[in-house]
């Protein structure tokens, strides 16, 4: 009887597993962010920029990046960003892995080989579009209540570094080697803060985020939008590029906001 029962149980388990096969992991399907830097000389002042895009103020944010003095992380495609809001909005840290100089297809293949897939809702996969660049990135954001060690007026640097170390997702910290990652993170310093003023507006009938960043006496302004469809992203990119060129609003310098802070 016992042998018969075991055989029956194994047969039932086999039939059940074949009737309900494990669901395959979905391949990475990134979203798209289209963005352009504006030529500040084309506008009388910041208010002129805001009016040009019919924008309303959203948030004031202090933005920090953490890396070693020789930017070891950035050289390897790692970005660690801390944002502290002037309002009572929660503070957040972002872990981002970028693939500069690598085709989006090859970057996705590398991420897939590392175990990333589209069903991982706590990660964001994105194709960043900026004139002359087309870059794939993976990011994960962790959000915290504001406290006395992370305020709009200033931060406790050691506390921030320990936060990055403690909250680092395993798949991110293990991309190369966790010991190397944690040791390198211990050697980081803050770059910033930049003051980012964010606005919500429109450009050529398309919802647009407008950001004006100021750091060490310099300013950049950027418009951007996020969509999930590639054809729509292609269309917006072409429409905005032509519109900005015609209006003479397009900056010749299409640097990233990360570079704007970390290259100073």
Automatic annotation (TrEMBL):
Signal sequence interval, chain numbering? 1-24
Specify the superkingdom.
Bacteria
The UniProt keywords, alphabetically, are: Signal
* Entry-linked InterPro entries: CYTH-like_dom_sf
* Protein name as it appears in the record: CYTH domain-containing protein
- Taxonomic classification, please? Bacteria, Bacillati, Bacillota, Bacilli, Bacillales
